[in-house]
Amino acid sequence: MFDSLLSRFCHDLAIDLGTANTCVYARGRGIVVSEPSIVALNKVNGRIEAVGTEAKEMLGRTPGNITAIKPMKDGVIADFEAAEKMLTHFIRKAHKRSGWLRPRVVIGVPSEITQVERRAVKDSAMRAKASEVHLVEEAMAAAIGAGMPITEASGNMVVDIGGGTTDIAVISLAGVVYGKSVRIAGNELDESIMLHARKTHNLLIGERTAEQIKIEIGSAFPLEASMTMEVKGRHLTEGRPKTVTMTDGEIRIALAEPVKAIVQAVHDALERIPPELSADIFDRGIILTGGGALLKNFDKRLREETGLPVQLAEDPLSSVVLGAGKMLSDFNLLRRISLD
To answer: What's the pTM value of the predicted model, to 2 decimals?
Structure first.
């Protein structure tokens, strides 16, 4: 009784610890934190100057003694100390108090995460004052968050395109029949745009600008009306600020390789699943989740390439954390699907 009273009082948390963004869901309150996975560190005294949105504002603009760190790379922890501090900050922010209560935490991780990487995520969360840590596959959490009937004896296919990884899963009877994680996702798309600007326009642009171009005029399939965007950066040979006009067509060509790799991974999944489940997926189609799924016409491209119905989840950015959040109220389901 004390245990249930304590859990109700302290708000268990679900966390989508993403390469680009971290979302935190508090039971009974919904999503309470949704911020970039970035930490601004003071190199002189080792103090954290800013976390999340504040730290992102500093990207490319920090003085010499402050460095902006992305603790996550390809969906896993690359900098343990920064990740721990970032988690502690977000957990405290979610609780609105630093009190003595330690929440139970459910964290979404890529499907092909190694044992060592799994341990690193758990340890960081425990040091960030969690009492229990349960890990679940991001694709499974995304499927639950998107409202898919994962406990039924039928195939459900979800493609979760995050910042660092694209997770593809075919789920039946609350189990992953086929799971694949490819380390090509939103960040790779940004890098392709930066490379294109450098090669084609001799223009040096930062990550934030590349992301803005992707959001505004990026697409995976031709648009109905062409779009252009004024892009500011530094000219490589002249060394001074310059503005160039980019079109949706050239950005589509720049993004062609990573988009093709994601589509190919979906093809591979469709080829490797049992025929009975293939029939289910043919009827139900594919659900797209994750921030990368918001790339214009990605659903059309996938529909064209696979011949299957493709649907964008209602809230692609939050599917993983909403799915993990649902498990906080269903510990029987959590026990069945957690990676422990």
So the answer is: 0.87
